[in-house]
C-alpha cells in the first residue's frame, strides 16, 4: 500500500491529473501500475500518446484509401508511404523522409533508380489532384475515428537541377474544426464520409470549379436556366399547338408526324435538362445527371449545400460530391443510389457486394444511416 501512496504523490507532482487512475485501481491491476511508471517519467508519456495518435491517423488514412475501390498508381504510392511510416512508428523508429527511389520500392513499381525521379514526378502531380478531391473525406474519416490530426502525403521540393532531390513523407496535420456535431450512429448503422469532391466534366469546369456558389451572376444564371428553360419549352409547345390547330387543314400529314416527333424530342430534352434543376431545389441532394460527370465517375451526387459565407450569412453552394461508407455487416464500401419506388424521393446507401440486402438510409446532416433491411 505504501508504494501506491508514493506513486500517487509523484503523479500529483507531474500535474497530469486527468489520466490518473485511482489508488484502488492501482492496487488491483498491475497493468495500471505500469502506466503510472510511464506517467512518472513525464515527457515519454506525452510522446507516446502522440505516436498513438499518429498511428491511428495512419490507420484512418489507409482505411479511407481502402474505400476508394480500384487502386490507381497514385493511390498505391500514397498507400506505400503510409504503410512504411506506420511500420517505422510501430517499431519505435524516428520518422524519416524518402526519395523517389525509396517511394518506387514502397509502391512495388518496376522502375530503375535512374528513372525514378521522372516517374514519380508524373505520378505525384496526379496524386495531388486525387488528394485534393478527397481532402474532406480524409479529414472526415480521421474525425470519425476521434482524432485531432490526419495523415497527408507531402512532397518537399529539393534545390532542383541535376541532382533533383525532392523528398516525400507523410505529414500529420491538425484537423480543421468542423461544425462540430459528432452524431450518434444507430446500432448496425453506417457513418458516411464525403469521400470525393469532384471536378465536373470538362465543359462545366470553368463554371463550378470550386463549388457553384449561388450569389451574384451565378444565382441569376441558375434561375435563368431553370425558369428560362421552362419558358422556352412552354413557348415551343404553344407554337406547336398553334401550328397544328390553326393550319391543320393545310399541313400535309407527313409534316404533322414530323411536328409530333419534334414535340416529343423537345419534351424529352426539356425533362432531361430541367428535372434535375427542380429536384435539386426540392431535395437538396440528388444523384448527379451523367451529363455533368466525367466517364470514370459513378455514384456521384449533386448537392446544394448551405455553407457559411464568413459574415455570419450562408450561401448555397452547388457541388458534385460522393458520399460513401463502410458496410458494418460485410466491410465492403457503401455507395448512394436513388431509392426508386421502394424509397421514393430518398437516396439510400447500398453495399457494393450485397446491394439487395445491405441497405441503409442516408442523412445528409448527420452523415449517418441506419439499416433499412
Ligand atoms: Zn454489405
From TrEMBL:
Keyword Transmembrane assigned? yes
Q: Which domain of life is it from?
A: Bacteria
Can you tell me where the transmembrane regions are? 222-244, 256-278
Polar residues: which segments have biased composition?
1-20
Q: Which UniProt keywords apply?
A: Membrane, Transmembrane, Transmembrane helix
The segment annotated Disordered runs over 1-22
Query: What protein am I looking at?
Result: Uncharacterized protein
- Which organism does this record belong to? Cupriavidus numazuensis
Amino acid at each position: 500500500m505504501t508504494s501506491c501512496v508514493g506513486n500517487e504523490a509523484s503523479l500529483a507532482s507531474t500535474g497530469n491529473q486527468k489520466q490518473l487512475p485511482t489508488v484502488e485501481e492501482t492496487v488491483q491491476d498491475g497493468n495500471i501500475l505500469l502506466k503510472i511508471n510511464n506517467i512518472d517519467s513525464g515527457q515519454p508519456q506525452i510522446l507516446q500518446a502522440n505516436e498513438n495518435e499518429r498511428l491511428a491517423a495512419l490507420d484512418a488514412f489507409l482505411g479511407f484509401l481502402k474505400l476508394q475501390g480500384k487502386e490507381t498508381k497514385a493511390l498505391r504510392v500514397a498507400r506505400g508511404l503510409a504503410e512504411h511510416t506506420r511500420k517505422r512508428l510501430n517499431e519505435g523508429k524516428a520518422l524519416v523522409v524518402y526519395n523517389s527511389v525509396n517511394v518506387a520500392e514502397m509502391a512495388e513499381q518496376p522502375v530503375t533508380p535512374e528513372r525514378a525521379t521522372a516517374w514519380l514526378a508524373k505520378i505525384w502531380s496526379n496524386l495531388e489532384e486525387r488528394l485534393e478531391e478527397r481532402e474532406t473525406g480524409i479529414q472526415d474519416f480521421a474525425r470519425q475515428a476521434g482524432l485531432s490530426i490526419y495523415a497527408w502525403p507531402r512532397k518537399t521540393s529539393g534545390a532542383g537541377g541535376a541532382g533533383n532531390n525532392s523528398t516525400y513523407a507523410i505529414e500529420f496535420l491538425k484537423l480543421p474544426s468542423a461544425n462540430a456535431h459528432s452524431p450518434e450512429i444507430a446500432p448496425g448503422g453506417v457513418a458516411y464520409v464525403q469521400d470525393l469532391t469532384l471536378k465536373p466534366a470538362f465543359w462545366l469546369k470553368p463554371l463550378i470549379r470550386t463549388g457553384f456558389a449561388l450569389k451574384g451572376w451565378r444565382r441569376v444564371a441558375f434561375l435563368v436556366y431553370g425558369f428560362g428553360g421552362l419558358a422556352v419549352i412552354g413557348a415551343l409547345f404553344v407554337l406547336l399547338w398553334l401550328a397544328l390547330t390553326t393550319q391543320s387543314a393545310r399541313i400535309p400529314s407527313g409534316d404533322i408526324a414530323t411536328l409530333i416527333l419534334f414535340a416529343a424530342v423537345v419534351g424529352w430534352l426539356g425533362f432531361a435538362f430541367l428535372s434535375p434543376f427542380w429536384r435539386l431545389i426540392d431535395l437538396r441532394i440528388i444523384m448527379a445527371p451523367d451529363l455533368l460527370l466525367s466517364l470514370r465517375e459513378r455514384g456521384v451526387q449533386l448537392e446544394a449545400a448551405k455553407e457559411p459565407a464568413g459574415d455570419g450569412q450562408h450561401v448555397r453552394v452547388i457541388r458534385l460530391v460522393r458520399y460513401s461508407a463502410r458496410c458494418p455487416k460485410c466491410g465492403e464500401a457503401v455507395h448512394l443510389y436513388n431509392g426508386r419506388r421502394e424509397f421514393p424521393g430518398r437516396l439510400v446507401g447500398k453495399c457494393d457486394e450485397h446491394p439487395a440486402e445491405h441497405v441503409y438510409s442516408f442523412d445528409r446532416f448527420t452523415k449517418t444511416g441506419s439499416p433499412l433491411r
